[in-house]
Fold:
Amino acid sequence: MIDRASSESEHLGHPPNTHSIANDSNTTPAPERKPEQALNGQRSIWFFQESEPLLDQLGFLSGQPSLPISQELQGRAPYPVYTIPQQGRFMWKTCLRGGLLSKINQRTYFSTDRFIRELVLSDQLQRSEIPASRVLAFSTVRKGFGVHVEQLIQLEDDVISVCDLLENEQRTPTREQIRFAGDLILRFHQHGFLHGDLNVMNLMLNRQQTERTKAVLVDIDPGSIPPGENRVGNLARLARSYAKVLARGGRSLATGDRFRFLYHATGGNREYLKEALQSCKARLPETEHLR
Structure:
């Protein structure tokens, strides 16, 4: 039995927007929407109304999957994936903590603010037509003083992370892929957003170079944005993750492509590009400085 919850909750109010940055491009993102909350016994589910039929079809509203597992993706735990023909693949993710805290508390969260922000941000990005991972819903079940959380995420087909492309497949992106990736970061920033963990694992490109070129941002967690973060800091974080790939034996970008990417990611703004080049260069090995 699904009941609509009241618009307020003692621990689940709609938090302030903390993922936006000063917008100097007059590009206005889609307005934030407040998600629905439904109750099914001890299970609470947050989603946007248009997703409800899909959630019901997958069994997410009840908490009992109604389709066979089509594959498993490995993260902090195996995440089951369910496929609906003509509609896509959907990952049912058990949210687990990482880092030192996970050694004493891996599963329980004491606030759902970050999950509400991520759901709202994902919806905003979709309606702003910025290619990004689509979080359809999340659910909670109370455990002691906290809650256990699950998310339902629609997966992008036929993509590969820049990390896997450079490190595992030992291939470099095409110039068109570089341009698409830079343009995506520019649009993301121009709409007033920052990525909580912009790295080469979270920037996806079309897997086959013969396919239509696309770039997609994933794992957008606004709750992990460091204090004082800005656009240049986002790009520097990306450069640092690229340096780690190089240290593990990954392929370098083609000569000129690092500059080409930053040119597109900064919109060619001279001062912004200069600052980004300096900040990114400081995080790269000397062998990359002249590329």
The chain has a mean pLDDT of 90. The chain has two domains: 19-155, 159-288. Residues 19-155 form one domain. The longest strand covers residues 134-143.
